[in-house]
Amino acid sequence: MNLQLENKLFLVGGATSGFGKAITEQLVAEDANIIAVARTKSKLKDLQRISPNIEIISGDLSEEKTIETIIDTIGTRVLTGAVVNSGGPPAMPVLDTKISDWDNAYKTVVRWKIVLTQALLPKMIENGYGRLVFIESVSTKQPVENLVLSNAMRLAVTGYVKTLSQEIGPSGVTLNILGPGYHATQRMENLFVKNSELKGIPEKEIRANFENQTAMKTIGDPQDFASLALWLLSPFSKYITGQTITVDGGLVKGIMG
User: Fold this and answer.
1) Which of 60, 72, 107, 141 is deepest in the core (most CB within 10 A)?
2) Separation between Cα atoms, residue 20 and residue 236, nearest integer Å
């Protein structure tokens, strides 16, 4: 299926690892143009080697100077879509958190997404077209153990996206959230390690416990996840907005999951 992304310009956050990298690779395969953003310049340069269609920006998305650089880099070009994605806050249970942890989580999970979205929206609305895909977590539907900061802050993003999608519904700009469950990413590996430390259980057993929570009894592939993200970035998703779609192998047990 041709997703009609050829020569279109897309912004991808967290582009050098996990879901961001998988989405970038699939956009390259569709002959799209990509502005890739991540913290580590060396990893961005490695990514850039796969295609001349990749521009890179090294910076922390939670810093406004990075967002200013993104807007300057786009310039007068038409941005077709953006993958709003970055790493999450550290894993910890509720009673281990400090107020400073909550302040940092707001900055790294919520605030910059609002700043970026509201910087990109005016031109998209003026053009009558845009696709914004937010990569959040399965915790938008069901909390993940020892991830209270992510569980709480990603719900704030969900409320923001849903409200905004209602306000700009006729504009031609859609906003949707993908909530990944357990996938083979570095973030997941870090969670295995943290849970192993907290519970005194071997990482292998922790991994098996996570797999067994899903209906499919396995961890997901980021490339499969990316294929849905690309469809949401395409013109074919024009009648879908304000949705939070979990990609979780049957992890969420609720009927509305």
Assistant:
1) 141
2) 21
The pTM assigned to this predicted structure is: 0.95
CA–CA gap between residue 214 and residue 74 (Å, rounded): 40
The closest of 127, 113, 129 to 177, measured between CA atoms, is 113
What distance in Å separates the CA atoms of residue 106 and residue 110, rounded to the nearest whole number?
5
pLDDT digits (tens, 9 = 90+) for 222-254: 999 999 999 999 999 999 999 999 999 999 999
φ, ψ dihedrals at 110, nearest 5°? -110, -55
The answer to whether the CB of 136 falls within 8 A of the CB of 152 is no
Burial of 231 from C-beta contacts in 10 A (0-12 / 13-18 / 19+): middle
CB 56 within 8 A of CB 48: yes
Mean pLDDT of the chain: 96
